[in-house]
Amino acid sequence: MKSFERVQPQSWDEAVAALAAAKKAGVSAEAKGAGTELVDRLKEYNLAPDRVVDLRRLTSHSSIQRRPSGGVSIGALVTLSTVADVLKSDFPALADACLGAATPQIRNAATLAGNLCQRPRCWYFRSSEFQCLKKGGVECLAKSGENEFHAIFGNDTCAIVHPSAAGVALVALDARIETLTTGGGRTLAAADFFVRPEADILSENALKPGELIVEIHVERPQGLRSAYRKIKQKQAFDWPLADAAVAWREEGGIAKDVRIVIGSAAPVPWRAKAAEALVEGKKIDGALAARAAHAALEGATPLGKNAYKLPMVAAVVRRTLLASARLPDGTEAFG
Ligand SMILES: Cc1cc2nc3c(=O)[nH]c(=O)nc-3n(C[C@H](O)[C@H](O)[C@H](O)COP(=O)(O)OP(=O)(O)OC[C@H]3O[C@@H](n4cnc5c(N)ncnc54)[C@H](O)[C@@H]3O)c2cc1C
Ligand code: SF4
């Protein structure tokens, strides 16, 4: 690891000012939440900043606020464990996505904002020995190389799968992400926060240099139903081979405003729009969930070594839909 200067701001304004000052001085700087992902990259020489701006000890944007509307605002520094504990009954999709990620030790430290901004796990990207398209090289090495854990949707340019489980749930829940820079802040729909490689090959999100996430807002409309399910290689902690989050409003027994989002399958949390259209306005049952699971594969373009993911994606979509309707889905509940 290259040595770096550690900056400990006293406020979020100081944090964004420190990042802006570094940029102005031509000094490379990175923000740090708990560091469970960032420090790995520093150790692997995937990243070698001159400064690290440590957000972890800031006291604001570190709790969950309930709003009179029934929605919540989740501070950027809230840990995955806290989200899983506190929001289990309000937003099972988000709580289970956080509960299913990593290990208890990591979840107790890892922040929600850090989870959304973590960089891809593609082994070519992580290894200092390869210079692929995402690191300024000329080609995607995974497409013709080792791609068993890579994308089966939207993989034309770069075939990463976005690593954030919370992101899958937040897109399904149509959450909004509030940011801060020295120039003020803005609020983005979660779906617009994640950007495809065709829009920006060097980043997976819409944050500008020096821009930080401060809050994540989630509404809770009347009759909200949601669920998250994950298929992994081993029962102990593991990254998903396929995961999905589903959210909809129950109105007179039928599903309205259906959002079905697939994870671990595309460079961004991937909305299965054909499946959403199929389920919209209907009562969810086993037969409909099976048809939607099939529709969720529309547009898939598996690579040489990852076609095995197709039945997994279909299975996880079917199970998540059933779980969201509180029907048996054949899997054990999280937690
Ligand atoms: C063994 C293992 C298994 C894992 N399994 C899963 C899994 O199944 N699902 C899953 O989703 N994750 C998984 N993870 C990843 C884990 O969830 C992340 O490492 C963690 O959420 C990152 O949070 P952090 O606070 O430590 O972020 P950091 O490491 O501090 O930061 C990560 C990135 O986010 C940026 N960042 C941090 N805070 C902000 C902010 N407020 N605004 C803007 N940018 C910010 C940093 O600059 C950095 O680029 C796993 C990790 C490990 C080690
Ligand atoms: S999938 Fe993306 S990160 Fe991985 S080798 Fe291809 S361009 Fe690089």
Summarize the SSE layout with pairings.
Layout: E1 5-7, H1 12-24, E2 29-32, H2 38-43, E3 51-54, E4 64-66, E5 72-75, H3 80-86, H4 92-99, H5 104-109, H6 112-117, H7 123-126, H8 141-144, H9 165-172, E6 176-181, E7 184-189, H10 190-193, E8 212-218, E9 224-232, E10 240-251, E11 254-263, E12 270-271, H11 273-279, H12 286-295, H13 309-324
Parallel strand pairs: 1-3, 2-3
Antiparallel strand pairs: 4-5, 5-8, 6-7, 6-8, 9-10, 10-11, 11-12
The structure holds flavin-adenine dinucleotide and iron/sulfur cluster (SF4).
Architecture overview:
This protein has 335 residues and is an alpha+beta fold. Among the domains are: 1-57, Uridine Diphospho-n-acetylenolpyruvylglucosamine Reductase, domain 2 (2-Layer Sandwich), CATH 3.30.43; 224-324, Enolase-like, domain 1 (2-Layer Sandwich). It is built from 13 helices and 12 strands. It has helices spanning 12-24, 38-43, 80-86, 92-99, 104-109, 112-117, 123-126, 141-144, 165-172, 190-193, 273-279, 286-295, 309-324; strands at 5-7, 29-32, 51-54, 64-66, 72-75, 176-181, 184-189, 212-218, 224-232, 240-251, 254-263, 270-271. It has a 5-stranded antiparallel sheet with strand order 4-5-8-6-7. It has a 4-stranded antiparallel sheet with strand order 9-10-11-12, sandwiched between helices. Strand 6 (176-181) and strand 7 form a beta hairpin. The longest helix is centred in the C-terminal third of the chain and has 16 residues, at 309-324. The protein is globular, with a radius of gyration of 20 Å. It starts with a strand and ends in an 11-residue tail after the last helix. Bound molecules: flavin-adenine dinucleotide (FAD) and iron/sulfur cluster.
